[in-house]
Amino acid sequence: MYEERASRLPGAVVWTNTPDASGTGRVLPDGCMDLLWHEGRLLVAGPDTHAQLTEGTTGAWSGVRFFPGTAPALLGVPAQELRDRRVDLADLWPASRARRLGARVGAAADPATALEDAALALAADTRPPDPLLRPLVTALGAGRPVAAVAGELGLGARQLHRRSLAAFGYGPKTLARILRLQRALRLARSGVPYADTAARAGYADQAHLARDVRELTGLTLGGLLGG
Questions:
Q1: What is the pLDDT of residues 39-81, one digit of tens each?
Q2: Looking at CB atoms within 10 Å, which of 46, 65, 95, 173 has the fewest?
Q3: What are the b/e assignments for 132-144, b being 16+ CB within 10 Å?
Q4: Is the pTM of this model over 0.90?
């Protein structure tokens, strides 16, 4: 069972998940990075460009999902180094620092809240993220064209691409594509017909939506929604 709630860290989500008996799951790309706790291990989930399968994974998971672009500053690693990867925190931090945090989370009655506390402490001790990231994500998430958003933010194409790689793990066009997928999934899950979903989410047509969903998730839209 998957459950989530808004975090005390602005824009973040605290979640827990216990896979079903088969231990299978599919994590869809969403522009985010996560700090994870699973069976005594602290992990960082990098930004995904395609669905990640969790087949064979058992046991409860806890995590903090950071607002797109904010995790690299908190964790001290550029996002592109973690693209499509799941990495032990001890491989990114000094081992002693990672062990101390792991001991605190492991001793907590609620690992998810302990992870949230750790994220809040990191935010308090870290310089704020690039101030242009949030308006960039908001504009692309609303379907604004990349070139138009770059112009509004006063960024050239190369500068925007470089800053996007460090913050999101990929360029702004890939981010826009992933956010468009998430926009379409929200519409489809609310009952909007697929053709209307495609138009409202910014796809050329329903066939374009179908191709993008298949390429990014490995399933059809109906398969994702259980229909």
A1: 999 999 999 999 998 876 778 999 999 999 999 999 999 999 9
A2: 95
A3: bbbebbebbbeee
A4: yes
